Amino acid sequence: MHLKHSPDAPTAEEIAFDEFLKVDIRIGTIVAAEEFPEARNPAYKLRIDFGQAIGEKKSCAQIVTNYPIDELPGRQVAAVVNFPPRQIGPAISEVLTLGFADGEGEVVMFAPDVKVPNGSRLF
To answer: Which of the chain's termini has less CB crowding within 10 Å, N or C?
Structure first.
């Protein structure tokens, strides 16, 4: 397990509240998931619907250990929607899907426990 993902990792550098507000975290619903065999680490390519204002965005997510691909469509997830797109191998990731490390260091996606409208912003 990487120390940065460990529950024992030290807290990050202190930031001002205004800096936090610059990070736009929204809820979206996964509409499609596909295998991503070209990825260096096992991953899926996701298409996530963030509602009318943002639309559908692509994300590459290393979530294969905890999520069978056929169970992903329809699941709501949180993602940062205002980072610049990143090239991940041959794919473009337009949003950063958020998660936490489980006891084995594998990703567990961050999502609301009650369905909320796509595009809802974290506050």
So the answer is: C
